[in-house]
Amino acid sequence: MGVQHEDEPQQDFRGQGRGRDLVVVRIEEYLRARCAAKPSAHTVAAYRRDLEAVLGEVARVRGTEPGRVVLEELEVVVLRAAFAEFAAQRAASSVVRAWSTWNGFFRFWVAEQVVAGNPMSAVPRPKVRASAPKPLRGEDTPEQLLRALAQGARKARDPWPERDLAVLALALLTGMRSAEMLSLRMDSLGGRPGERRVRVVGKGGGERVLPIEAPLEVLLEAYLVSRRERFGVVRGEDALLVDNRGRGLRRGGLQYLVQQCYRHAGVHDRVARGTLVHALRHTFATRLAEDGASVTEIMHLLGHASVSSSQAYIEVSEGARRQAASANRTYGVLRELAGPGE
What we know:
Layout: H1 23-34, H2 41-62, H3 76-87, H4 92-111, H5 141-150, H6 161-174, H7 178-182, E1 189-190, E2 196-201, E3 207-212, H8 214-231, H9 251-265, H10 277-290, H11 295-302, H12 307-326, H13 330-338
Antiparallel strand pairs: 1-2, 2-3
Helix pairs in contact: 1-2, 2-3, 2-4, 5-6, 5-9, 6-8, 6-10, 10-12, 11-12
Pfam families: Phage_int_SAM_1 (PF02899), Phage_integrase (PF00589)
Protein name: Tyrosine-type recombinase/integrase
Domain Tyr recombinase: 131-326
């Protein structure tokens, strides 16, 4: 058997070129394959961060560089050590997300018959309790927010109350995710006057159609009139929601807009930390549950893949009803009759 020179391609256990099975190469191929499902750019970036971060820990465990790690080195013992290091400075939810990303990575390559099995089932992951919905606090907070915006509460350098009101009302009355709102185009709106609807592209490219009732239709039309006055003709493929220069809103711009609306409307202290746009979605769903919507109706309106995600809103609603019922003053008499300790 001849001596293999250092600059010749080495062969791995499957007989393929070693360069072909570099993990960094397989990550790029995996992400390209995932793009067929039309994930948002934010989702793809999150996949990449999780894959590359854990790969960095694998490289440290192996005493090499990330670009030199090959698939056959991703053994259970190495992945366990890498995830232990990855988890040391991160929240449990971040570790679970990274675990799921790597699990999807291996499942893909098992299906492609590139690797023999998925080692992630032997890699521990933390148990994370499902987080409770975090709607805007305060019974009348949504109404106070919208009234304040309609009155021009947001003091910006170039105020545009019609746009601000349309964005917040659209989120509160449809429950769309940030990415879904940002992906809307002018031709996403359809239907006859009084029967308007909006076509939403959700996670995984799934579509759903949401009703637009007359009051929201009026707000959207006022926004579109003001937009045409500012920027002229609007085409069907143009972004529905735009910034003050007429360009499609981006994630950071939407978050900033919503944050400023909260602050100028005086309700910023009623927003759970880290929610911003998502607080509007949670408010929409919680109010649906409080008003008697079924879990199936909530699931379809929110674009959830399973009933379990929507069930949380029903449970919160039941808790709120119990709390309201227990505040009945008649219970005070019963407590007096029951005596101390009851």
